[in-house]
Amino acid sequence: MLSSPVALLLGAFIHLDWHLARHEHDGRSLGWDAHWLLAVPIFAFAAWRIARRWPPPDNPWRPAALSVALGILLGQVIEPLAEIIHYQATLAEELEPARLTAFALFTATGLVTMGLTLWALARRPSSGPC
């Protein structure tokens, strides 16, 4: 009960958010202070996909939670470990406080967005005249 495409999407954007947020000038960074705003359309789209796959009377909350958990594992655990292996970096270099802060802002914004989207879609009548 999880959506692998949604989890991959979330994992990719969790990683992309770090490139949007960090202020280093290495050609792979933008230093955008409002990077967390990207979470709104991404998590809303993810919630919409999950709500379509598990419409009422099914409960979309569990697949949403599992998809987010896998996305976090991919974007915030597996990807930094791959960078450590590939670039021979240290754990401290890859999990610096700025990265964790960016992740927390992006994820908190995304979770609120996903929750509100799932709630709004669950309240909407599935059929009938408008």
Q: Mean pLDDT score, rounded?
A: 91
Number of domains: 1
Count helical runs. Answer: 5
**Roughly how much helix do the residues carry, as a percent range?**
over 70%
The N- to C-terminal Cα distance equals: 31 Å
Shape: elongated
Secondary structure category: mainly alpha
Rg calculated over all Cα atoms: 16 Å
Describe the sheet with the most strands.
none
**Helix/strand order:** HHHHH
Low-confidence stretches: none
Strand content: under 5%
Instruction: Count all strands and give the number.
Output: 0
Description:
The chain is mainly alpha-helical. It has one domain (4-123). It is 70% helix and 0% strand. The chain contains five helices and no strands. The protein is elongated. It starts with a helix and ends in a 7-residue tail after the last helix.
Provide keyphrases for this structure.
70% helix, single chain, elongated, 130 residues
Map the helices and strands.
Blueprint: H1 4-21, H2 39-53, H3 61-87, H4 91-94, H5 97-123
Quick structural overview:
The chain has 130 residues and is an all-alpha fold. Helices cover 70% and strands 0% of the residues.
